[in-house]
């Protein structure tokens, strides 16, 4: 198998130089403000710092276009509450 140089024909010879995007969760910190894009029936879409992302409400149900503030970010989950 090795003598036929078959492995050389199928082996990867290029270097991979691409990078992975930073998740939105790392761009958001507690205290950042935003607005609900969809109704938060505990989980929904919100725009925070100009980025659309999935968030979870700790204030229960929040209607669309409700102002929100980030309470905390844990394990890739963004917890938000109604802005007071």
Automatic annotation (TrEMBL):
This is Uncharacterized protein. It comes from termite gut metagenome.
């Amino acid at each position: 198998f090795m003598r036929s140089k078959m492995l050389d024909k199928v082996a990867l010879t290029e270097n991979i130089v691409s990078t992975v995007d930073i998740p939105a969760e790392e761009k958001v910190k507690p205290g950042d403000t935003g607005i609900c894009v969809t109704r938060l029936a505990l989980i929904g879409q919100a725009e925070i710092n100009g980025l659309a992302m999935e968030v979870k409400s700790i204030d229960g149900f929040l209607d669309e276009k409700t102002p929100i503030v980030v309470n905390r970010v844990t394990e890739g989950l963004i917890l938000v509450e109604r802005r007071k």
